[in-house]
Design a protein that fits this description.
heterodimer, A: 279 residues, alpha/beta, Rossmann fold, 2 domains, 4-stranded antiparallel β-sheet, 10 helices, 14 strands, 32% helix, B: 240 residues, mainly alpha, 75% helix
């Protein structure tokens, strides 16, 4: 579905956003996770033909991103990070406009737009100007666009950033309705765990690890995370917090001694790599 | 080319804004109507014909110049442009859609000026046809110029200031609201950098207020082509 070969990107201001990324993606829903500035958006924008790489090659749906961008654009939907609706337009108008841009006739666009809005339970809000919608509903307008377009591959760049938990859950449900393959970026570990069949850990423009959540977390099997504000031997430091991994059966002892004990998440893969996840 | 998209975009972005944001329409009319009032008072009604014809052009130009901010806002803030990059449409479809939306957005003002013009009997069939053509070509060139500048902007913080400056300097300074014959010829040529100047000079000629300066026809056509082509290349579509 997607493959990259030594893909690199250095912006005009000298910032190196991607460093020789070689990657193959063939799962139904793949998530790039990493901190802000890790290179996720750059990678997604290159793959969805919005940005040119500095070097390297990539193919999406069997087409070269540099030589055949028009063919790729027929196969993909790409929802940009923090894309906002046009306040004066209603959800159905957004969808129709987007579908017409994708080559649908006006009648087809209307039909598919209504179908998608019904499926995402947005039908009642279809004629409300979008500046009257909640943040979650506005994001769902974009997911509805992707749903109505029925593309082979959907790229979603941080689809739930800035949303409250309820809105985030709504958007997750909407994403699960999408057909075809989905590639999304996020810096919410629980989002990747909830949605992705495969996760790709991105840091400083490089791929740290790739695999299913279960496989990636295998090394932590039977362990919990113990946090303290005081340094201890074998600790990883995250800001002012010290972290170590202990056996699950020892957890109660640590709790009694005033430590915070948490279950293992994808965050811990970054901790092991010495990446400071504090905002 | 996806003309269906350009027309749909123009309809939604132009007409829906009129319907759901009428304050924008009033705001776009406020400057030319204020000038119309001032010119009427100061010239004791003598120059009102100029102010009405100039009002058509000033309105269309100022709406289009506001697109500097609009184009940058859609690209940088709303990320709507990025959404369309990954579809089948070309930058030309997008620019054409935006340009046509500004023309639609100017319609309430154009109708108002048409009523004022009819009341003071300035129209003939020929002058109406000439005015329509001038307004269309003026929209293309001013929107093209604006989107060229809007495409070069990296940050939104300066963009509204730039569009306000452009609107005043490139609309009020040229002989839009006063007889072009009041200016030395070389000044007219200098002011022709703004597409509003050839449009105003020609309009005053076609309405019979002043002699027709035919050299402004090729200037206006060339400017509209140049500015539209520049917009096509300066609009950041697939970014480097």
């Amino acid at each position: 579905m997607i493959s990259t070969q030594n893909l690199s990107k250095t912006y005009k201001d000298g910032v190196k956003a991607l460093n020789s990324v070689t990657l193959n993606i063939d799962k139904k829903l793949v998530s790039f996770i990493g901190r802000n500035g890790a290179g996720k958006t750059t990678l997604l924008r290159i793959l969805s033909t919005q940005l040119k790489p500095s070097s390297g090659t990539a193919s999406v749906a069997g087409f070269d991103i540099m030589k055949q961008p028009d063919k790729i654009r027929k196969k993909i939907v790409s929802i940009p990070q923090e894309a906002s609706t046009l306040g004066v337009l209603t959800p159905i108008e957004h969808l129709k406009l987007y579908l017409i841009a994708r080559g649908f006739s006006v009648l087809q666009a209307n039909e598919e737009a209504l179908k998608a809005l019904r499926e995402l339970e947005m039908y009642d809000a279809r004629n409300k100007p979008s500046d009257t919608l909640s943040g979650g509903m506005k994001r769902k307008v974009f997911v509805a666009m992707a749903l109505a377009a029925n593309a082979d591959i959907t790229f979603l760049d941080e689809p739930t950033t800035g949303l409250d938990p309820v809105s985030r859950f709504e958007v997750w449900s909407a994403i699960k309705n999408l057909s075809g393959n989905i590639v999304l970026t996020t810096h919410y570990m629980e989002e990747a765990q909830e949605l992705a069949e495969e996760v790709v850990l991105v840091e400083s423009g490089e791929i740290l690890e790739k695999g299913s959540v279960k496989n990636l977390l295998h090394k932590f099997e039977g362990k919990v995370r113990v946090e303290s504000v005081k340094p201890d031997s074998g600790d990883y430091q995250i800001g002012r917090t010290y972290v170590k991994y202990v056996k699950q059966e020892d957890a109660e002892d640590y709790i009694r001694n005033g430590y915070n004990v948490r279950r293992i998440t994808l965050d811990d893969l970054f901790v092991l790599r010495g990446v400071n996840l504090e905002p | 080319m996806n003309l269906r998209f350009s027309l749909a975009f123009a309809w939604y972005y132009g007409f829906r804004t009129i319907k759901r944001g009428p304050s924008y329409v009033i705001a776009s009319l406020s400057s030319p109507l204020t000038l119309l009032f001032l010119i009427y008072i100061i010239s004791h009604g003598v120059l009102i014909r100029y102010a009405v014809v100039g009002g058509f052009l000033g309105l269309v130009a100022s709406v289009s110049f506001a697109s500097v901010g609009d184009a940058a806002f859609l690209r940088i803030q709303l990320r709507i442009q990025d959404l369309f990059v990954a579809t089948s449409i070309s930058p030309t479809d997008y620019i054409l859609g935006l340009t046509l939306s500004y023309l639609i957005f100017s319609m309430p003002g154009i109708i108002l000026y048409a009523i004022i013009g009819a009341l003071i009997h300035i129209f003939t069939i020929e002058s109406i046809i000439a005015l329509i053509l001038l307004l269309v070509v003026l929209t293309i060139s001013t929107a093209g110029l604006s989107m060229t500048i809007g495409g070069a902007v990296n940050h939104l913080r300066n963009v509204w200031g730039i569009s306000a400056i452009m609107s005043v300097v490139l609309t009020v300074l040229p002989p839009t609201f006063y007889p072009y014959t009041d200016l030395p010829k070389y000044i007219i040529y200098i002011l022709s950098v703004s597409p509003t100047t050839p449009a105003a000079v020609l309009a005053q000629g076609f309405f019979g207020f002043e002699p027709i300066m035919y050299v402004m026809i090729p200037i206006m056509i060339v400017e509209s082509i140049v500015f539209f082509v520049l917009a096509r290349f300066f609009t950041r579509w697939r970014e480097n």
